[in-house]
Amino acid sequence: MIHAIRVIGQATVLGFAEMGRVYTWRTWTFGWLLRLLCQVSFYALLGSYLGDPGLTRFVLVGNIVVLACMESTIVVISLAGERAQGTLPLLAVAPAGHLPVYLGRGVQWMTTGLVSSMVAWAVLPPLLGVPLPWPRAAYAIPVIVLVLVSSYGYGCALAGVALRTRGVEWLVLNFAYGIIMAFGGTNVPLSVWPAPLRAVVEYLPLVHGLQAVRGILDGAPAGHVLAQVGAEALVGAGWYLVAWLSMERLVSVGRRTGTLDHAG
Amino acid sequence: MTSSNERRPLAARRVPLARRASVMWRVSLVWRVSLVWRAFRLQTVLSRRSPSHALILLVAPMQTTSLLALTLHAHRPDAVASAVIAPGLIGLWVSSLDYAGRVVPEDQWAGRFTPMVAAPVPLALVVVGRVAAVVLVGVLAFAESWLVAALGFGRVLTVRSPGVFVLAIAATCLASVGTAMLLAGVISLSRARDVLQNSLSYPFYMLGGVVFPLTVLPSWVRPLSHLVFLSWSARLLRDAVHGTAHGGPLALALAAILALGAAALAGGMWLTRRLVDAARRDGTVGYA
Hints:
The complex is a heterodimer of chains A (about 260) and B (about 290).
Chain A: H1 2-22, H2 25-50, H3 53-72, H4 75-84, H5 88-93, H6 99-104, H7 107-127, H8 136-139, H9 141-164, H10 169-183, H11 195-201, H12 207-218, H13 222-257
Helix pairs in contact in A: 2-3, 3-7, 3-9, 3-10, 4-9, 7-9, 9-10, 9-12, 9-13, 12-13
Chain B: H1 4-7, H2 10-13, H3 17-48, H4 55-73, H5 80-99, H6 103-110, H7 113-118, H8 123-153, H9 162-189, H10 193-199, H11 202-207, H12 222-225, H13 229-242, H14 247-282
Helix pairs in contact in B: 3-8, 4-5, 4-8, 5-8, 5-9, 5-13, 8-9, 8-14, 9-13, 9-14, 13-14
GO molecular function (chain B): ABC-type transporter activity
Pfam families (chain B): ABC2_membrane
Protein name (chain B): ABC transporter permease
């Protein structure tokens, strides 16, 4: 177990080194972070144009929490890169096994997701004229962390598709968080959608976590909030299970057919 | 038998200068258009092999769903046109930024850049043709968005001034090609290539007022919006849908879109020439 944690730690260091090739702290702050804040503001301003401050706050909160999900799912790109760069067979034959590396490969995105969603949580509501009820808003932060973690499992599971088909990683990533943004209760309540669609959406990450966050802000009973938190944790665990099975199968089939070193 | 030309003095045989210039200009124009067309076809073939170039066609329906659901949930049928038009404009911007911006860097990675620079044709025209092909994919987002509204939400968007709408789309596409050319130049010359591609989306959707009027933005931001062609396009397209685009404001909006596109195109062509000159001078043409 300690060995696996050390491998995940090394994979995380690798991830940050990789990220450092693209971003400096200045370009991350004034490029990427600013873009994310603009994304949230874009939808919140639309909410303020269309409705009252209540709608603006609903949209604002939804889009801040979605940042956590969006950044976590970028793990799809990092994992697909393993196959494109030909490093997947090396992971498969490593004595530590491929899963710790696989699971640690996008931890840097969870970290940046936490930072960006926290900056947005603190800065945007007062800036857009819909302040959050502090200190109650602070209780929502652990739930946002849970959303980060469950979305990461979802990203790892969908990376299985990107690892099997060459050149589709950006399609998979955008589809992954696109359907959550569209149907996951980010901009409109889930009750807007037909029942069959709602039943499917229940299995997506963020959906229950976001309801828990909204419950905390609105002062909902603790039982309701805890039930949503539990559901979010269960959904996340389910996606980790899918990710594990998907990777195991990819590696075992690749070993048997000798296609592990193919670039997809 | 000799021709009358052979018996006349040399000076008299010369074709008038103005006519010669006109013929040469026409030949040159045909040659340039043909070059752009061939580059357009090359990009079509390359894009067919790259599924990620169809990304916007995957994203546009989801964006339409988000925007339209929010609009209808807020009981604002007057804003439905904005929610349907916005994903189309975003599609054009994404095509310009994401794919067009990668045209030259991808050529460098694939080893196509060296023969292109060595060929006796201006690289800028080749890039224009290829960027145009990529931008055209973005136009399909308008159709997708209309279909999602009609089939998914039962909202059939009727365009009251179809002529103006078509003109606005055509002008917007031309401006997108110009802007894509500029972005391709900037991104190719920049060391923060990925940062630029990842960052220049939502700030411009906000500045361009693609889904809400510019009055929603703080007053100090609005002058900047007038420098973004999307702001003129969004307003003109919305006015065309509502049938309120007429006379002076219509002409002004079209002129602004085309002028901003032309300025961006000129800047992009200048940057591409600079890129090629620098690569030749430094001996880095073959570098990825």
